[in-house]
Amino acid sequence: xxxxIEKDMIVKLAYRLIDEGGRVLDERTPDYPYEYMQGRGQIVxxxxxxxxxxxxxxxxxxxxxxxxGYGDYKPNxxxxxxxxxxxxxxxxxxxxxxxxYGEDGEPMTVRVIEVSDRVVTVDGNHPLxxxxxxxEVRVLEVRAASLxxxxxxxxxxxxxxxxxxxMH
Length: 168
Fold this sequence. Notes:
Blueprint: E1 9-19, E2 24-28, E3 34-37, H1 45-51, E4 59-64, E5 78-82, E6 97-101, E7 107-115, E8 119-123, E9 133-144, H2 147-152
Antiparallel strand pairs: 1-2, 1-3, 1-9, 4-9, 5-8, 6-7, 7-8
């Protein structure tokens, strides 16, 4: 008998993330599924709500607005930083990411979007900010979480690798 998805269950999904123009932005196949703990905000809310109560084999689609997904695009998060602020030997490249602190003192990840001899332009927006998105989802596996997984809030209860994170 199949187990239905509810809070603190470990779920494996295959999905396709598609923008409003029909372009596939991300995909997880059954051979490389996305694994998360339901009800912990590790995947966008509309996807969590779509699969709640479902069992392996379920297929569905859901539309995700910027508000429900990755936020509105905020032009004020695109900032020019003098090249002299970086170490002289720093090899800066477009799409490079690094951690810093926002004006509010909160940690944030920024992505380099332009590099010149004088200025490095970074963007603190999530790469999917401002986009209307569609998720095509298939539930592959559902299981109860172990006590260790519930305590850590992570499937497999392994520490997160540097630079990894949730799809939230």
